[in-house]
Write a structure and sequence with these properties.
CATH topology of the largest domain: de novo design (two linked rop proteins)
Bound molecules: zinc ion
Number of helices: 7
Strand content: 15-25%
Order of helices and strands: EEEEEHHHHEEHHH
Number of strands: 7
CATH class of the largest domain: Mainly Alpha
Radius of gyration: 20 Å
Distance between the termini: 52 Å
């Protein structure tokens, strides 16, 4: 049987038998798990392959429950690991990744994840996690409608409504909506091109408020349970 080679980001690992681990990596084809036999034995030099957040390329057997044969470490993102806050936010992002439905657009998400990991070098975790979550609404199939009123298609929008899943015009104001300032900021973040645009223009936003809003949006539109959001922004 031929071996296969996959690039991915280590999302989690668990101890398997006495000296081994099962490693879950997120790849452009989705989540893949494999056995890293003997990886708890330091002499084997497999620690980087089982360390969360590392980007690796793994050669593994082509079986239902593959075994890693060899690997290359591409990036260990030390600038995240050296910073507690960045690490906690990155773990939150990886928690979202680990809960993706199997039929998600993985190629798109993988490239977004890789880009966000790079951006952690220059920007803080709260901003990047908020941005990641707003962008990911598309991949979860619950992207907010932002350019026109959700109810009447009026392009003259004034409010942002979590429950209605997007913008509302002046005729459709409701009690629990957010104002135009929030709507504009969500729109700016949703449409920003993170591969080519500078993120400096969103840097000054009140990310605590936007992070709260996007988490509320997830709890009412995305079918996954996320814990610990509030502890990230105390
Ligand atoms: Zn309307």
């Amino acid at each position: 049987m031929e071996n296969i080679c996959l690039e991915g980001i280590v999302v989690s690992s668990l101890i398997y038998k006495e000296k081994s681990k099962i490693v879950y990596i997120y790849t452009k084809d989705g989540m893949v798990s494999f056995r890293a036999l003997g990886s708890l034995n330091e002499k084997k030099g497999m620690l980087p392959l089982t360390t969360t957040m590392n980007r690796v390329s793994v050669i593994m057997t082509d079986k239902a429950f593959p075994r890693a044969i060899d690997y290359t470490l591409y990036d260990s993102y030390e600038y995240i690991k050296d910073d507690l806050k960045k690490t906690l936010f990155m773990q939150y992002i990886l928690e979202i990744i680990s809960k993706l439905p199997e039929d998600s657009p993985h190629e798109r998400i993988y490239s977004l994840l890789k880009r966000v990991l790079e951006l952690f070098k220059d920007y803080d975790g709260l901003m990047l996690t908020t941005l990641f979550m707003i962008k990911m609404t598309y991949s979860f199939g619950v992207a907010p409608i932002l350019k026109k009123c959700v109810i009447c298609n009026n392009p003259n929008t004034m409010y942002f409504s979590i429950r209605d899943g997007g913008a509302l015009c002046g005729n459709h104001h409701k009690r629990e909506v957010f104002n135009k300032d929030i709507l504009d900021k969500i729109k700016e973040i949703y449409f920003i091109d993170i591969y080519n645009d500078s993120l400096d223009k969103i840097k000054g936003y009140d990310m605590i408020e936007l992070f709260r809003i996007v988490n509320l949006y997830y709890s009412s539109h995305v079918d996954i349970y996320l814990k610990g959001a509030s502890s990230l922004i105390f």
